[in-house]
Design brief:
single chain, mainly alpha, three-stranded antiparallel sheet, about 55% helix, globular
Length: about 350
């Protein structure tokens, strides 16, 4: 039997320009959505698949068919290091189905057009795992958080380096009061604190948002409520001066690093420095929470504390910068007596409404 030459009957297709690559990526995504819809997948589920894929593409900065396992190691190990286990697991499910789509339908075409062989970057080494219990980030009770920050503030006076200790304390305390992400804390500038806006003043939080379509609220003005204004006034008029004399420069970092630029001004603090500062304080003042109380859990505490003090969930959603209300609900943790307390309050309202009789 003689071997015949097999020739691809499709016209030759090569992606030459960035515009052609972008258009091809858009076509692939549209086909992916249509394929999922044709399989009877609900629209909310499809959005839940597309959002993480778009977020991964934005982070990677190149077409996802170029991604290797080491790239995903960096994504989960650094970029998403502080994300909840449940969030990572949901992202993995979305990535798995998208790369399966690319491999099943377009592996040959992508190779012909780009020279890259599509292969899922997920493997047994970097695949995040977590069950229902792992997805719950339940913060410590209010008394423990109060004790943590009370002891931490007392420690600052005896710290070997007062300014970094005060910085770490202020950033963590702010996270526990109004729930900014650690990435947003690192990006804050002096000019982002708008003292004259609204009744309390506001802070402009910036950074990569989340959300089911990878967008989220990338910028938002959050009122300086819950004691956060007093905290920032103390910081800006006091310990912040220990780093440099740029406190009146709106472009200077609100939370500086000890590292400096050539002109003597401070660089912005890194997330590792803030994480380390919190971890050390937890080890001293809340040792049973070591390895559990992270900046992300402080964000959960802020949501729960605001809800416990009467703020409605929609307002908390706006403060946290969530795209979807159901995400905010995951962050709100209530006391075990919450249902009983709500029942008693409802009974009191009913009694008042009906003139003392029920």
């Amino acid at each position: 039997m003689a071997l015949a030459v097999v020739r691809d009957l499709r016209p030759e297709f090569r992606l030459e320009t960035s515009e052609e690559v972008a258009a091809f990526e858009q076509d692939l995504l549209a086909e992916f959505v249509l394929a999922r819809a044709s399989a009877g997948v609900l629209d909310d589920t499809i959005r839940g698949d597309v959002g993480p894929v778009l977020g991964l593409r934005e982070w990677f900065g190149r077409p996802l068919w170029e991604m290797e396992a080491q790239d995903l190691d960096r994504y989960f190990g650094r970029h998403r290091r502080d994300s909840a286990s449940g969030t990572k697991v949901r992202q993995v499910a979305a990535f798995s189905v998208f790369f399966e789509f690319l491999e099943l339908r377009h592996k040959a075409g992508i190779h012909a057009a780009t020279g890259f062989v599509v292969e899922s970057p997920l493997d047994e080494m970097n695949r995040p795992r977590g069950g229902t219990s792992a997805r719950l980030r339940i913060p410590p009770p209010e008394a423990e958080i109060t004790g943590l920050f009370g002891g931490w503030r007392c420690d600052m006076e005896e710290a070997r380096k007062y300014a970094p200790a005060a910085r770490n304390y202020t950033a963590a305390r702010l996270a526990s009061l109004i729930g900014p992400r650690i990435s947003e804390l690192c990006l804050l500038r002096i000019g982002d604190v708008r003292w004259d806006l609204g009744r309390f003043g506001k802070v402009l939080l910036k950074g990569k948002g989340k959300g089911s379509q990878g967008r989220g609220k990338k910028e938002r003005l959050v009122p300086l409520i819950n004691g956060s204004r007093d905290l920032l006034e103390w910081w800006v008029t006091g310990p912040r001066w220990e780093f440099d004399d740029k406190v009146n420069d709106p472009r200077a970092p609100l939370f500086p690093s000890e590292r400096r630029y050539g002109d003597g001004s401070s660089r912005a603090v890194t997330d590792d420095a803030l994480r380390t500062g919190l971890a050390e304080a937890v080890a001293r003042h809340l040792p049973h929470q070591v390895g559990q109380l992270t900046p992300h859990v402080l964000r959960h505490f802020a949501a729960s504390d605001l809800y416990r003090n009467g703020m409605d969930v929609v307002a908390i959603q706006e403060i946290l910068g969530h795209e979807w209300l159901n995400t905010t609900m995951i962050y709100v943790h209530v006391a075990k007596s919450h249902v009983e307390d709500a029942w008693i309050r409802a009974g009191q309202r009913a009694t008042a409404r009906f003139g003392g009789t029920r």
